[in-house]
Amino acid sequence: MGISRRGFLGAAAGGVTSCLPRFVGRAPWGSAELGGARWPPRPAEHSSRYVLLDLKTPLTESIAGYQRALAQFGDDFVTLPPQPLAQQSACPVAIVPGCVMMDLGAASWLTALLDKGGLVVIESGAAFAEAAEFLAHQQLLVSRFGLRVGPPVNLWPEADPERNAARCGRVPYVDYIWPAPTKLRDYSRVVPLAEKSTGTIGWAGRLPIAVRRNVRQGTLMFLGSPLGPALLSGDREAHTWLREALLAG
Questions:
Q1: CA distances from residue 233 to 9, 63, 64, 85, 137 in whole angstroms, order as listed
Q2: For the chain, counts of helices (H) and of strands (E)
Q3: For residue 65, which of 136, 16, 102 has the smallest C-alpha distance?
Q4: What are residue 77's phi and psi, to 5 degrees?
Q5: Which of 147, 180, 209, 230 is placed for a possible disulfide with 141 were both Cys, Cβ 3.0 to 4.6 Å?
Q6: Domain encompassing residue 196
Q7: Contact yes or no for 218/122 (Cβ under 8 A)
Q8: Helices (DSSP H) in the chain: which residue ranges?
Q9: Distance, CA of 88 to chain centre
Q10: Contact assessment for residue 223 and residue 210, using Cβ atoms and an 8 Å cutoff
Q11: Is 52 helix (H, G, I), strand (E, B) or coil?
Q12: Assign residue 74 a region: left if phi > 0, alpha if psi is -120 to 50, beta otherwise?
């Protein structure tokens, strides 16, 4: 691969060090306060507006980023591993940060949520996965959500992003066209859609990397460029875009 996950995270942190929160990683329930809200929040029973599905992805910065953002928004959310989902009543929105692989129970819970008219946001973390894991990721998206994605694309022609940025005088960005035009920095690799389609909401150059479409009775949003690390670093544009996207549904 053109850049490692460690290189990606190093690049992500480089430009925004002063914005990093004090709580990097997962604190025990109720062990930290952030903006007047507990972060992460205590588990809620059957009443949360948002469920963050924790798949124990290697990209742990992603789920921490969404926790930070939702806490700052003041929204009611709960972070759950896949096992208790059967006991969690339907919520309006489920977010799957850094998704690579998913067990049958979690996939069934998400499709049931779509059947009830909910919103499912899947952020792909598969750009940093091994070949076998990425194949499983592709099969999951096709079989459960009717979504076809292509292999990861390295946005940097060289392995060293900082050196390449200095030489080219620019860094790659993702351009979101919905819910409002927004330009967000991407630090290395994206998982593009395998085909252009209606509902595309984000582009990395000419590559479609984000889509919003009706699936079953609900709405599926797929992000092929990780947003969570930017949320964790305090990126203002990333926070604004996520807030507007969740409100628009």
A1: 10, 12, 10, 29, 26
A2: 7, 13
A3: 16
A4: -145, 165
A5: 147
A6: 5-248
A7: no
A8: 5-14, 60-73, 104-115, 131-145, 161-168, 228-233, 236-248
A9: 21
A10: yes
A11: strand
A12: left
- pLDDT 10s per residue in the chain (249 long)? 444 554 444 444 443 333 333 223 332 222 233 333 333 334 434 457 899 999 988 888 999 999 999 999 998 898 988 776 655 555 789 999 999 999 888 999 899 999 999 999 999 999 989 999 999 999 999 999 999 999 999 987 654 445 444 444 467 889 999 999 999 988 678 999 998 778 999 999 999 999 999 999 999 999 999 999 999 999 999 999 999 999 998
Return the structure tokens found at 189.
């690799």
Here the CATH number for the domain that contains residue 52 is 3.40.50.880
Q: What six digits make up the tokens of 161?
A: 């992003």
Half-sphere exposure of 127 (CA within 13 A, CB side): 30
Domain count, the chain: 1
CB atoms within 10 A of CB 25: 8
28 cis-preceded (ω within 30 degrees of 0): no
Amino acid at 134: F
DSSP, collapsed to helix, strand or coil, labels residue 61 as helix
Nearest CA to 121 among 145, 103, 139?
A: 145
Checking phi first, is residue 21 left (phi over 0); if not, alpha (psi -120 to 50) or beta? Answer: beta
| Cβ atoms of 210 and 226 closer than 8 Å | no
Rounded distance between C-alpha atoms, residue 96 and residue 49, angstroms: 14
